[in-house]
Amino acid sequence: MDAHQIAERGHGLLAEGWQAVEARDWRCAEHAFEKALAIGERLDRQESDLEMLARLGLAQVRYGQGDLVQAVEEGARAVAAGEDSIDIHGWQIPLYQLMAGAWEEIDQPHQAVSFRQAVVALLRQQQEDEPSLELAESCYLLGETLQRLGLCPDAARSFEEAASIYEMHQPEQKANLAATLERFGPVLSRAGDYAEAGRVFDRLLPLVRELAGADSSAESSLWSNRGTMLGEAGRFEEANESFTRAEQIRAGLAETSPASMALLWSNWSHSLRREGKVGRARDLAARGAKALAEARSPALYVALDALSRAIQADGDTAGAETVCRQALERMEAHRLADLSEWTRVLDWHARLLDELGRPDDALEARERAAAVAAMAAEPCAAEALAAH
Fold first, then answer.
1. Distance (Å, whole) CA 366 – CA 358
2. Left (φ > 0), alpha (ψ -120 to 50) or beta: where does 78 sit?
3. How far apart are CA 159 and CA 185, in angstroms?
C-alpha cells in the first residue's frame, strides 16, 4: 500500500470518527480517531494533514466527554501539528473555536481570548460582499471573553461589530441583535462612555418590548442596567427613577426569582452610596445579601461587595472588612466574577486593611490583585494563530 492509499485509509477513519461524534458515540469516535492518528504520525506533515485532523477529532471527543483539560491538551497538539501541515486552512476555525470553548469552561478566559480573536481575524479574511452571521456570533463570543477579562473598550468594539452585522439581517436576527445590545450597553458604561450607553438603551428598549412584551423580566433588567449607568455618571435622580421602574416591574411579575430582585437592590445600593444616601444603601444591600443567601445563590458576592462598601461609608471599617472577606470567599468558591471584578474587590479589601492598620495583609491583597490583573494583560497570539 503506497502513501496515497495509506492517507486515504486514514481519511476514511476520520469520516467514521466524525459520524460517531454526530451520534455522540464517543467510544467509537475515539477508536476511529486514534487509528487515524496512528496512520497520520507515520506520514510527513508537509505532505498530509492527517495527524492534525485526527488530533482535532480527539480534542472534540474529549470535549464531548467533559474532559476539558484533555481537550485543551489535545487541541494544543493539533495546533502544533497544523503548523507544519499543508492544509490547515479550513480547519483552523473549528479547532480554535473548540480550544476557546474548552478554555472558557475551565475558567481560563485569558487563554481563550487568543483563539477567539484568531477566529474573528480568519472570518474577516474570508468575507466577500457581506459580513456573515458566523462573524457576528464570533464577535459576540469574543466580546464576552474580553468583558470577563475586564477589557471593556475592546469588548465594546466587538459587541458593536456584532450588532452592526445583526442590523443587516433584520428582522430575522432581531433576537440576536437584542442580546448583543444587552451586553453592549453595560460594557460601554464600565468603559465610561455613558452617552453611547444611553443611546444603546434607547435602541434596545423597543426591541425588548417587542420580543418579550411590556413590563417583562427582561425590561426590568434593562431599567436596572440603565440605573447603574446613570448612577456611575452621577445622574442620581434619573438613576433612582430607573431603579424604581425596574423594581416596580419586577414586583409585578407573576413569577420572579428572589435573586433577581436581590441583584437589583445590590446595584441600586452602589448608586445610593455614591449619592450619599448611606443608610438606604446599606439597607438595600443587606436585604439583597439576605435574599441571595436564603436562595443559596452563587451571586451572593455581588450583594456582599455592595454591603461592604455601604458599611464602610457608614463608618464601620472593621465590619466592612469582614463582609468584604466573605465576598472574596464566595468569589473564589464559585469563580463567577470576571477578572476585573475580582481585581476591584481585592483592591477594595487592600484599602480596608490599610485603614485598619494591617499593611502586610494589605500588601498581600494588592499582590493578589496584581496577579489577577496580569492574567487579563497577557499578550495574545491572535495574529500568529491566524497566520498559519
1. 12
2. alpha
3. 9
Grouping H, G, I as helix, E, B as strand and the rest as coil, residue 48 is coil
- Contact 112/76 with Cβ under 8 angstroms? no
In the structure, what pLDDT confidence band is assigned to residue 87 with cuts at 50, 70 and 90?
low
Q: Report H helices in 23-148.
A: 26-40, 50-65, 68-83, 92-105, 109-126, 133-148
Torsion of CA 225, 217, 250, 145, to 10 degrees: -40
Query: Which strand (E) or helix (H) includes residue 45?
Result: none
Cα-Cα-Cα-Cα torsion 220, 224, 226, 231, nearest 10 degrees, comes to 160
Q: How far apart are CA 376 and CA 45, in angstroms?
A: 34
- Residue 380 to residue 23: CA distance in whole angstroms: 35
pLDDT value of position 301: 94
Neighbours of 257 (CB within 10 A): 14
DSSP assignment letter at 337: S
The C-alpha cell at 332 is 473564589
**Alpha carbon distance 227, 241 (integer Å):** 8
The single residue listed with the C-alpha cell 490547515 is: 88
Confidence (pTM) = 0.84
Cα distance between residue 155 and residue 152, in whole Å? 5
| Cα-Cα end-to-end distance for the chain | 31
Calculate the alpha carbon distances from 125 to 90, 132, 134, 157, 379 in Å.
12, 12, 13, 18, 22
Q: Is 50 exceeded by the pLDDT of residue 365?
A: yes
